[in-house]
Amino acid sequence: MRGMTTASLVVGPLLRYVDTTRATVWVETDRPCTVRILGQDAPTWTVHGHHYALVVIEGLQPGSVIPYTVALDDTQVWPEPATTFPPSVMRTFRDDDEFRLAFGSCRRSAPFDEAGLKQFGADALVGLANKMRDAPIEEWPDAIFLGGDQVYADTPSEALLERIRTAHEGKPEDWDEVRDEIGNFEEYTWLYSESWTPEPIRWLLSTVPTCMLLDDHDLRDDWNTSQTWRDWVTKQAWWPDRVRGAFASYWIYQHLGNLSPSELELDTTWAMVRMDISDAERSERLDAFAWRSDAEPDSARWSYYRDFGSEKLGIRMLAIDSRCSRRLDPDDRGIVDHVEREWLQEKATHPAEGQNFDHLIVASPLPFLVAKGIHHMEGWNEAVAGGAWGPNRGKRFGEWVRQEVDLEHWPAFRKSFGIVVDLLRTIAKFEHTPASVLVLSGDVHCSYTARATLPGIDPAVPALHQLTMSPFRNPLEPQIRFANRALKARGVRGFMHLLARSARVEDVDIDWDIDNGPWFENGVMTVVIRGRDAQVEVDHACVDNGVQGLRRTATIQLTGPPPPRRKLFRRRRT
After folding, report:
1. Does 204 reside within a domain?
2. Average pLDDT for residues 465-489, to the nearest whole number?
């Protein structure tokens, strides 16, 4: 047993950023200390009584596999002695033409016992960790994108509920609606600890670099769905503590590691938390930053980009915040505001010096292309909520449907949808056209792939795909699965199209079909790039002899000419 004066890890280590020669590793510790990894030291800094460090490691060898340990005040604390997993490693970028990116979203915390597996199914990230343990390192993902709902602040696990209810004793009646939900920064730390400390998850996050982006459940269901929702929520007594806790913890646990060492040097909030100031002042300043981030969305940027690949192969991933930076004016809605739109257009059209885009990956927690029945319904709803069926009853009905049915994906913000279509057309006309443009999403608790075409543009180059993987672990109820399948049916799709036209919604200048899926099981997708070729591997979680794993559902070719469209009906045999 460690002595009472010895620091220990609470959460982590998380390997966050890796490039050719640099890496960052994030940890939470139980007390102030100095963290040492591969000879690089970083002192912890304290926020609301919790202690964190992000260790920047430089001077690594390109194309290397580097085992590492974590020491706190010169005492090694990682890896833990009883682990059944291999040593944690960093893998710097190789100078070759292969890259593997795993992704998905929506992961509930629940036990891995019989009851937990029956209710929530196998955990796809646990399955991925177990698969990696037995696989050659060449088959591991080079990075993982966690695309939203990493934690569920509005539906915490049964294990946390008693603790939350105890913490909320004595709250006034106007807290009744959220008495069983996360309420502040301290309670958010419980969520992250619960989610990221099971042994398979802890090893996975210590070994594969992760990119993350938040979605609504990281704060609350339907977050920023409309101005009406926002007008209501900002009047609630519990909102200030909730929003400060959500954004401050998100910045620490998720966003900080999204940044490269070069970006960290320019980040004023990162500079602030490492200043020689009191813990109380640091906490107050981060709370103020968090509050302003929500009240004034253009005061903070949660979108970011990463350049993967090598000198031989240009791969850029743009991670687009489609939740915090929304423009909610009913007469001028945008799933991103003008500032984020300009950032997206700039980063999508200007590669790094001396590079081209061989593959462009757009990571958006919310899908861009959905089943056409849903697409038409969301367009209709936006128009009706904006007054297309009347300024009073019609608008109220549209707003009610918007919130009740979660109609808030890209098609529900039609101006933003059109801007992205125009951007895709611009990219398709590059002199060095990317072989693929891939939109990676989650949120909808089902997974599918959809190939898109633009009128007048070669459908083979670039290959345009929506790849949606959700959930990691949070399956849909059977009745909602049925509704999703129904909205894909030809007749329902046609009816929804007529409904949208009745609200004067114009058709969009892009065509697509869901060509694989939908699947409703917990799972993970992995984009596999080899030169200018791209595939996606679709794996779903399973339990085999009591061990959570993955089974291959499909391997889908993404680049090259599109296959012939499948017929909707087969001729009956006579």
Report:
1. no
2. 85
Digit-coded pLDDT (tens) for 364-416 = 999 999 999 999 999 999 999 999 999 889 999 999 999 998 899 999 999 99
pLDDT over threshold 60, residue 107: yes
Domain that holds residue 512: 96-146+302-560
Q: Which residues pair with 525 in a beta bridge?
A: 103, 538
- Distance from the first to the final alpha carbon of the chain: 77
Q: Tell me, what CATH number does 529's domain have?
A: 3.60.21
- CA dist 382 and 388 (Å) reads 9
SS (H, E, C) 513-540: EEEEEEECCCEEEEEEEECCEEEEEEEE
For the chain, how many structural domains are there in total? Answer: 1
Q: Answer for the pair 363, 443: CB distance below 8 angstroms, yes or no.
A: no
Distance between CA atoms of residues 376 and 489, nearest Å:
13
Q: Read out DSSP for 203-226?
A: HHHHHS-EEE---GGGT-TTTTS-
Is 351 within a domain?
yes
Give 264-281 pLDDT, tens digit per residue.
999 999 999 999 999 999
Q: Is residue 549 part of a domain?
A: yes
SS3 29: strand
DSSP characters for 331-376? TS-BSS-HHHHHHHHHHHH-PPTT---SEEEEE-SS-SS--HHHHH
Q: Which of 73, 78, 29 is nearest to 49 (CA)?
A: 29
Instruction: Output the pLDDT for position 571.
Output: 36
Would you call the peptide bond into 79 cis, given omega within 30 degrees of 0 as the criterion? yes
Instruction: Tell which residue, 87, 43, 51, 91, has the closest CA to residue 69.
Output: 87
Q: How many other CB atoms are there within 10 angstroms of residue 383's CB atom?
A: 21
Name which of 260, 311, 248 is nearest 54 in CA terms.
260
Please tell me the distance from the alpha carbon of residue 388 to that of residue 475, in angstroms, as a whole number.
35
Q: Residue 309 falls within a domain, yes or no?
A: yes
The half-sphere exposure of 556 on its side-chain side, counting CA atoms within 13 A, is 24
Q: Which residues, other chains included, contact 306 with Cβ-Cβ below 8 Å and sequence gap of 6+?
A: 17, 143, 211, 260, 316, 317, 319
Q: What is the pLDDT of residues 294-339, one digit of tens each?
A: 999 999 999 999 999 788 899 999 999 999 999 999 889 999 999 9
